From TrEMBL:
Residues 47-251 form the Serine aminopeptidase S33 domain. GO terms for molecular function: hydrolase activity. Pfam families: Hydrolase_4. Keywords: Hydrolase. This is Alpha/beta hydrolase. The keyword Hydrolase applies.
Length: 321
């Protein structure tokens, strides 16, 4: 990529502490493409930095997380992947890709910018689908050598579906995605998860609902095929060279009606899948459960997310010194 000028950063929607940089990408089957790098303004220079990658039906808005990293000596960057959040263009189906490798160009360019800005010890962090993408990138991404450690927050390593759907329905739909990649299906994710987060409903957080709606964007067969292929790779086993920390909630909860247990559990993924599959990511994987954690652990209750940060920064101190 041609390096953008330092003054190419523009003000970000999160206010004066943040700024954003548009990263143009080659056009794909839907037309023009871009990704967006967001950074928290630096209070002091430093070599260490983190690049955060959001999940499905998501974008970066977690300002407290950014402040925590900065307080612990890490320059904070986040990447809104193509067709998500700040990067979503009017002609695009939100969240739609046909191969998870399409995201590699977004990560390549973000890491290149960070290196050019003086960071030679970079932590890559992914939540949920972002956890799957970043894990695969650390396996075979072009610029994976820029990454010193990988932190995964409730990574999406398997479908949280019935046995029949996981072993019959999803593989059949993924196979059909080869021939009808743009065909849409309902995402089948609970709207109660969004209710547990957003302050207009039952939650603590304020974010832009058109980019992270309670009624989840539909998925395409092409997206499902891409995710299924990624899950198969994880199941076979990866060989990520850098140390990996995987955190997840201690329990999974389910139900159609509201239950206060949803404030203390993962209601998107099955944590047993994460416990089972995370050790297959590489030889230096640490897996730990967080009692009372939500699917996005850093959006949990204050005492719970405080434990998340204690665990994370203790691990980074031990791992990176």
């Amino acid at each position: 990529m041609r390096m953008p000028a330092a003054n190419s950063y523009q003000p970000d929607m999160l206010g004066p502490d943040f700024e954003q940089l548009i990263l143009p990408q080659p056009a794909d089957y839907e037309g023009p493409v871009q990704s967006t790098l967001v950074r928290r303004r630096a209070t002091q220079p430093g070599r260490r930095a983190v690049l955060y990658v959001h999940g499905f039906n998501d974008y970066f808005f977690q300002q407290e997380m950014a402040a925590q990293y900065q307080q612990h000596g890490y320059r904070f960057y986040a990447l809104d992947l193509r067709k998500y959040g700040r990067s979503w263009l009017p002609h695009q189906q939100p969240n739609h890709v046909r191969n998870l490798r399409e995201y590699y160009a977004d990560l390549d360019d973000a890491l290149t910018v960070m290196q050019a800005e003086g960071h030679d010890q970079i932590v890559l962090s992914g939540h949920s689908t972002g956890g799957l993408v970043t894990a695969l990138y650390c396996q075979d991404g072009r610029n994976r050598g820029a990454v010193s450690a990988l932190f995964l927050n409730s990574p999406f390593l398997a479908m949280h579906q019935s046995w029949v759907n996981r072993h019959v329905g999803v593989p059949l739909a993924a196979a059909a995605g080869r021939f009808a990649p743009d065909l849409k299906l309902p995402a089948m994710l609970p709207s109660v998860y969004g209710e547990s987060l957003h302050q207009q409903y039952r939650g603590e957080w304020d974010y832009y609902l058109p980019w992270k709606p309670l009624d989840i964007f539909p998925v395409t067969l092409g997206w499902l095929r891409a995710i299924h292929a990624g899950h198969q790779r994880v199941r076979r086993g990866l060989a990520i060279a850098v140390p990996v920390l995987v955190l997840h909630s201690q329990q999974t909860a389910a139900g159609k009606g509201w239950n206060d247990e949803f404030f203390r559990a993962d209601i998107v993924l099955n944590v047993r899948d994460i416990r089972t599959l995370a050790p297959r990511l590489g030889e230096r994987v640490t897996v730990q459960a967080i009692a009372g954690g939500l699917h996005d652990l850093v959006l949990s209750a204050p005492a719970v997310r405080a434990q998340v940060y204690r665990t994370l920064f203790a691990w980074l101190a031990t791992t990176l010194g």
